[in-house]
Each structure stands twice: as C-alpha cells, then as structure tokens.
Amino acid sequence: MSDRYQAFSKSPIGKMLVKNLGLPNPTALERWTEGAPLVNGTVVVGGDGRLSSGLGATLDGLGITHTDALGADDKAKGLVFDATGLRSSADLVALQRFFTPLLRRLETCPRVVVLGTPPEQVSGGERIAQRALEGFTRSLGKEIGKGGCVQLVYVAEGAERTVDSTLAFLLSPKSAYVSGQVVRLGVTGATTAPSVDWQRPLAGKIAIVTGASRGIGEQIARVLHRDGATVLGVDVPQAASELQSVMKELNGDSLTLDITHADAPQRIAHHVKEKHGAVDIVVHNAGITRDKKLANMAEDRWESVIAVNLTAPELITRALLEADAINENGRIIGVASIAGIAGNVGQTNYAASKAGVIGFVDSLAGELDKGITINAVAPGFIITQMTAAVPFATREVGQRLNAMSQGGLPVDVAETIAWYANPASASVNGNVVRVCGQMMLGA
C-alpha cells in the first residue's frame, strides 16, 4: 500500500526527471505520533478581530509556542490570522500584508489557519469581506506547497472560547491530508470548551465503529483507542475473526451482524444498553461499492449500496437515540466521500449514498439535543488494500490530482474523526470536512 511514485521521486534518477520534466514532487507528509507535541515549532499569530485577544491563552493551553513576529533567522511552523476584524473589501489587503512576508519563511509541512465570521451572520461590506476568505484560503492551499495545509474556520458570535480542539487539530500533523477546507463553529449551548487531556481526550468514552475489522474502520478504532476510548467494533459475520482480533488487541468489545438486517439497529441498541449503558461516539464507517454505469446497473447493486451506506446509519442512529443510548455531549460521525460531492463515473449508486450521508448530517444537525453533534468526513483517494487493486493508471491519476500530489492514509480519516469526537469539539456541528489533500475537482 506504499506510494511507489513518491519513493521513486526521491531517488537520484527520480529527482532528475522530476526537475527536468516538471513532474509532481510530493512532500513526505508529517503525521502525529503518540507523545509528540501538537506543534513542533513556532506559530505566528496576526490579525485584529474579536478572537485575537484570546488566541495567546488558547495556544498556551495547547502547549503551542507562538509569537506575533519572527526573529531575523527564524522560521514558522504555522500561521494563524484573525480576519474577523475585516469589514470591507478594502480591508482584505491585511491578508497580503501578513502572509506575503512569511510564506517564504515556513518550515516543511506548515499549517495555516484563517479565522473569520460566518458571512450569514453579518451584512453589507463585512459579509462580502468574510465570504472572500474562502477564495483566499482555497487558493493559498494550492500555492503553499511543501506539504502545507490551509484552512478557514468561521467562528460564530458567542463561540470564541470553543476554538481549542479545532486549532489543536488544524495546527498539528493530525490534519496532514486536510487542506482547503471551511470549518464552521457554532453556538451549541456551551460557551467554553471543557478541559481535556490533549494526549488522551477520549479517556472514559465509549465509541461504536461499524466496519471496524480492517481498512479505514480498523484505523478509526485504533486512533479512538489511542485517545482513550473503549471501542465497540461492529462488522459482518464473515469478518468475525478479524474483528475479534482487532478488538482483543484494543481491549474493546465486538458485535458481529449485518447492519442491513431489519433487527440490526435494535440489536445494536440492546447490546449497548446491556454492556455499556450508553455510548459517547457513533462512527458510521461501514460501506460498500457495487460499481457499474447506470445503464448497466441491476437493481440489487443499487439497493445494496444504499442499504449499507445510507439507510443503515439512519436506522441505527434512530434506534440509539430512541433507546437513550447516546450520552449527553455525544458525537455522531458519518463517513461520506468526495464521490458524493463531485460524482464519479460508474458510481451513481455509491455517490448517491455518500451525498445522502451529507444530507443525513444536514437533517440532524439542528434537531439533536443534549449537546449531541453530528458531522461527517469525506475522504478522497485513501491508500488501502481496496485502492491497491485499482488499475495502475487510474490509481496514479487519483493520487496526483490534488494539491499534495499524493494519496492519503487511513489514519488521516481517523484523525479527523477523532477531532469531531473530542469532548472539546462541542461547537463543531453540521460540518462535512474533506480528507482529500485538496482535490483539484470538487474540493
């Protein structure tokens, strides 16, 4: 499951060909390791808005070194700009004045975060300026290079003191394959983020992960366990031995069933109530593909994909909520796909199901109570055993057609889900974040 082209591009012959032919030259991405600091370097903070006065204390609380000006020979690992004070198109020049002198002073795999106000909350010139931030950050994400990531975080009025977990994720190597995204932090009742151990933020939490026996699901289970959660892995009976092996290693719990069976939602809810009382995190990861162009697609191919990828998450969530089996401040997390946003040839069924997951998030985001949130990830090209079977030419195009010129890893999806799951992410609700290296299409 390695990226052979990336390895070749670092060889003596590869370096020569990359330079002379202008071929993609992907940077090896840094990923977080347990026990490491969130940021290994200095973050430069700028801007003058309603968030700027509290940013220093927030970064101090995360153990992140920060400054408002670099020394003559220093470099930056990250940049944070508070753009909430921009109230007209003329004010946008502040972006150029802050970023231009610093972009050539960035270390490898830098992080850039721009903080803004949701445009729909303001009007006139301020609304124009705040909406302009999306074009700025998405373009900078495609310019920055060196394995860098650029994000925009819209922080609602009243949510100023809930940015901790989002900055911890976006400034750290945990967001290695997330770039060009717009994150929205709303007001959900809590006006401050709860105190958490940033090394083990999920300590004492119970998490369900469907499709947990291998691939992305297994990695989600591993990362949630790393962060302190007890994991209940769910998968089909055919994967029972793999599932039990993984859960035994993680000191977790396992349940084997077909999530599309009529009684599956109730069986899951009953298992949760009997063995755990309730859960804190529900990750709907299980998914299948049955690819064919629509003109050649049989009805069973269509129905099976919709049933696993979309209907089952809906029914399982409903059953857990009705059984009062999701704790207060719980997290529901769906796995969508870039296919559900941009579409894909031969995947009308799959793309419909994954766009439906986004609709599922939209539908429930404003209806849930007790501080429960719902969000989704939308992976792009993630290197797994399944993608390893894709024809070479198709696989190469899929891996290179993004700002980072490489595929992501299952851990990149898992880290994004762990950010959503964090108790301090209470203001993160109704988001769909693409884990795709900022694909050139649909992202």
How would you sum up the global shape?
globular
Radius of gyration: 22 Å
Task: Give the helix level as a range of percent.
Answer: 25-40%
Q: Can you name the CATH architecture of the largest domain?
A: 3-Layer(aba) Sandwich
Strand order, sheet with most strands: 9-8-7-10-11-12-13
CATH secondary-structure class of the largest domain: Alpha Beta
* CATH superfamily grouping of the largest domain: NAD(P)-binding Rossmann-like Domain
Largest sheet: 7 strands, parallel
Q: Roughly what fraction of the amino acids lie in strands?
A: 15-25%
Q: pLDDT under 50 segments (min length 5)?
A: none
The number of helical segments is 15
Structure description:
With 443 residues, the protein is an alpha/beta fold. It folds into 2 domains: 31-185, NAD(P)-binding Rossmann-like Domain (Rossmann fold, 3-Layer(aba) Sandwich); 206-435, 3-Layer(aba) Sandwich (Rossmann fold), CATH 3.40.50.720. The protein contains 15 helices and 13 strands. The protein has helices spanning 4-9, 12-21, 52-61, 93-99, 124-143, 164-170, 215-226, 240-249, 264-275, 299-322, 339-342, 348-365, 385-388, 392-400, 410-421; strands at residues 42-47, 65-67, 76-82, 106-116, 149-155, 181-185, 206-210, 230-235, 253-256, 279-284, 326-335, 373-379, 432-435. The strands form 2 sheets. The chain has a 7-stranded parallel β-sheet, sandwiched between helices. A 6-stranded parallel β-sheet has the order 2-1-3-4-5-6, sandwiched between helices. Helix 7 packs across helix 15 (410-421), helix 9 runs parallel beside helix 10 and helix 10 (299-322) packs parallel to helix 12 (348-365). It is globular. The two termini are 24 Å apart. 49% of the residues are buried.
